[in-house]
Write a structure and sequence with these properties.
Strand order of the largest sheet: 2-1-3-12-11-4-5-10-8-9
Structural class: alpha/beta
Bound molecules: adenosine-5'-triphosphate
Number of strands: 12
Number of helices: 11
Length: 333
């Protein structure tokens, strides 16, 4: 029996959460879910979108699955995602992007893993208002965090038979901050002779990604470029509805889709649960439930092959119909 925190989120969060929990239950994994609410729905009662109880539950269970949680814009709340990553020191953000069956995209055989530093850069939240017409945000990069994420990327490449790590920066302009990130990656690369090391500037990387994504393997990026480039990569393989993610630290791991709470389609049974489901599959692999993980992935792939798809990926199935089909496929495969 695994004790796992489930953050249900808001917007489309509750509907995709319920779908994914039901699929996992049908795969026969014994999980004791500690379901935690967060986001816009809890502010009125608890005053904040991320109550302390959510953090405490994650600290206790050490593993979490999370649906998107909205941070209200301009109300003085810190981003829930940034806060969680900081409080739990989830320094590595891992976003695998690969083609799925029967989802029409511009390129075949895309198989890129984005490794994004998760704790600093412009997301450290160090901002100041100089005067009414001028504001500054500090881009903070440290050697310690940069070497740690570089080590994570190379180690991941080694363990997963990846051939290359490509570090992405704008070190020709941000000479000190991105320069330090690049220098740290170069230092770590020296320890991993069997993994090829490549350097690219972020603007060129974006251009190359849309022209020839198959040339890339593992991408290593500071926080802001990682956020942007991983959405670009999601677009290469079918969009946000299928883009999975994981935040990993030394103590804790939190698995979550790349997408936000999609308020435009919330409550309409239109959301695609694939991104959360694939995040859950990675979580199952992480806790050693690899058989169940593979079983769920097969059932998902068979559903897609049968042409049952949600609207965002070119189909007409509702979220509930898509889920039912995956459960049916779990029973036959
Ligand atoms: P955030 O800033 O919180 O990441 P965002 O503004 O990037 O959010 P999302 O909420 O991720 O936006 O949604 C962007 C678009 O993608 C929306 O139009 C939404 O309908 C679509 N979308 C996102 N996730 C899904 C999903 N799981 N299924 C279907 N459509 C989705």
């Amino acid at each position: 029996m695994h004790n796992i925190t489930f953050v249900r989120g808001d917007g489309i969060g509750p509907e995709i959460s319920d779908a994914v929990m039901e699929i996992i239950k049908n795969a026969g994994v014994d999980i004791n879910w500690d379901v935690q609410t967060a986001g816009a729905d809890v502010i009125e009662e608890e005053g904040v979108p991320l109550p302390e109880r959510v953090i405490n539950s994650l600290k206790k269970n050490k593993i979490g699955l999370k649906s998107p949680v909205t941070t209200p814009i301009g109300k003085g709340f810190r981003s829930v995602n940034v806060q969680l990553r900081k409080e739990l020191n989830l320094y590595a953000n891992l976003r695998p992007c690969y083609n799925l069956p029967n989802i029409k995209t511009r390129y075949d055989n895309v198989d890129i893993v984005v490794v994004r530093e998760n704790t600093e850069d412009l997301y450290a939240g160090i901002e100041r208002q100089i005067d009414e017409n001028t504001a500054e945000s500090i881009k903070r990069i440290t050697r310690e965090a940069s070497e740690k994420i570089a080590e994570f990327a190379f180690n991941y490449a080694l363990k997963n038979n990846r051939k290359e790590v490509c570090v992405v920066t704008k070190a020709n302009i941000c000479k000190l901050s991105d320069g330090l990130f690049l220098e740290s990656a170069r230092n770590i690369a020296k320890k991993y002779n069997s993994v090829n090391f490549r350097e690219i500037l972020v603007d060129n990387c974006c251009m190359q990604l849309v022209q020839d994504p198959n040339q890339f393997d593992v991408l290593l990026l500071p926080n802001l470029y990682g956020d942007i480039v991983s959405d670009l990569c999601a677009g290469l393989v079918g969009g946000l509805g299928v883009a999975q993610g994981a935040n990993i630290g030394d103590e804790c791991a939190l698995f979550e889709p790349v997408h936000g709470s999609a308020p435009d389609i919330a409550g309409k049974d239109l959301a695609n649960p694939t991104a959360l489901l694939l995040s859950a599959v990675e979580m199952l692999n992480y806790i050693g439930e690899t058989k169940a993980g593979a079983h769920i992935k097969d059932a998902l792939f068979n559903t897609l092959k049968q042409g049952i798809k949600t609207k965002d990926i070119g189909g007409s199935a509702k979220c509930s119909e898509f889920k039912e089909s995956i459960i049916r496929n779990l029973q036959v495969c």
